[in-house]
Amino acid sequence: MSREFVIGLDIGTTSVKACVFHLNGKLVAEVEKMNTFHYPKQGWVEQDPVEIERAAVVAIKEVMEEASITKDELLTIGFSAAMHSILCVGEDGKAISPALIWADGRSDGQAQRLDEKMGEEVYKKTGTPIHPMTPLNKLLWMKENEYEPYRDAAYYMSVKEYVFYRWFNKRVIDYSMASATGLFNPATLSWEKSLLELTNVEENQLSEIVAPTTIFTEIDERAAAEMGINRDLPFVIGSADGQLANLGIGAILPGEVAVSVGTSGAIRQLTKGVKVSEERETFCYSFTADTAIIGGPTNNGGIALQWAKDLLNFEGSFEALLAEAEKVAPGADGLIFLPYVNGERAPIWNQKAKGSFHGVTLTHKREHFIRAVLEGITFNLYQIGNALERLAGESEKIYVNGGLARSPLWLSMMANVFNAEIYVPESHHSAAWGAAWTGLVGIGKVNSFEEIKENIPMSAPVKPDEQTSKLYKQLYKDYEKLAKDMVKHFN
User: SS3 of 155, please?
Assistant: First the structure.
């Protein structure tokens, strides 16, 4: 009996990951290559797209070797990628600028002016909140600052598009990545001409928009040889990491919510059609022609814990850091943390937001601050979740993945704050498995996205404690009041 495997390639902000899976979702092997960040000025965050493309080639090569599979046993490779990056590309197909990633805040002024002038109109057309993260605002910054690569560019692309272009010589973008640019109209599944005019970008400078199951073959000979794959192996374009994390964790039906927390975080739900929030608290990004993902991203997940670790000069591991938090009862003896140390997207969409501790006394020790940071991250996710429920209805089942999902303390905290059972997959590579499954749908190996629910190895659910949930319900009221009171100071 022949062996069959599939690869999910996840081009994230922090790293490029290649994961080999059995068709039942069991992880066979994984390889991770870390990405380099560049900070040329305060608020600027860039990455080298050439470095990332090379990392993707090497990751696929090494994961094939790690899994001990042959090129003929590999069925397909599906793609996942982080949203909101943009770079300038020359006529020869080479990058002429670094990639400005989601965390780059240089277009804050452009975002504020656009929001004041036509924020509601743009949001209703695109489903994308006005924020410096989006390529729309980055292009406005490039235009207004006469950015040389912008003036010389033949094309504008995300990192994912750039990788596809280098491998297949085709300029293509899937619905979700197009949606995340802020230049896409999900109602028409096309580029929004009024916004292209605003940025002085021609439609032919952007990529062709295609469905997530679109197949590409005949990869560049050099890349195929280096990866150790057949040139005619079908690559499936896939989607953005948010949509695929929901798919890979099984949160694909009404009422099923996915929470992902790594460096940043998000809470999301798939929905039919396009739904936008009257308060503009959430995003709505397309997935397929008739489905979208709604939710809210936070800038402050694991990055806030890393900040606290550095601030406290804690030299132990993250496991040891979280063990410190277990010494303290829920509520951290009245210490409340607003986790906006990296600005914030949902629910307040304010790049100038600042983190703060409230209620500090002489009796608070290191462990109180660590617990307060962890609780602040979780309360922020809960606040975003409330905004999502107002739009999509009550959550019935909560799935969790990402780096923090490996912490039993945090999973228990999530269960108690949300007062719900928390479902966790055995593998934390949900976006990669979602990408791999999209590949299987694309090549016709499986019949539907929905079938993935039968092929996700899950751990036992984490259940809430009734008394702790009641306590957190009261503590959240204090957090929410403080968060809303502080918004007026973020300017």
Answer: strand
